[in-house]
Amino acid sequence: MANLKTQEKTKAQSMGLHTETLTGKTQQKFFNPDEAENFFYWGTHDVDFNKRTELDVKEMDCITANKEIDNLMSQGFGTIVIKNPQGKHSLGVGILNKLNLIFEGSLGYFGVGSIDGPVVRINGRVGWSCAENMMAGKVVIEKNAGSCFGAAIRGGDLICKGSVGARTGIDQKGGTIIIGGDAGAFTGFMMQRGRIIILGDVGINLGDSMYDGTLYIGGKIGSFGSDAVESPMTKSDIDWIERKLKVAEIGQGFDISKITKVVSGKKLWNYDALEPTEKKGAI
Amino acid sequence: MAKKKKNKNKKTKGQLGKKKETAREKMIGQSIGYRYDVNLLPDYKRITPFLKKYVEAMGWDDLNWLEDVHMGYEDDRPAVFDRNANGWVTIPKKIKLPNNQQDRDMIARELLVKFQMSPNHPLVDLKKAYLKF
Question: In the CATH scheme, what architecture does the domain A42-282 have?
Answer without folding.
Answer: 3 Solenoid (2.160)
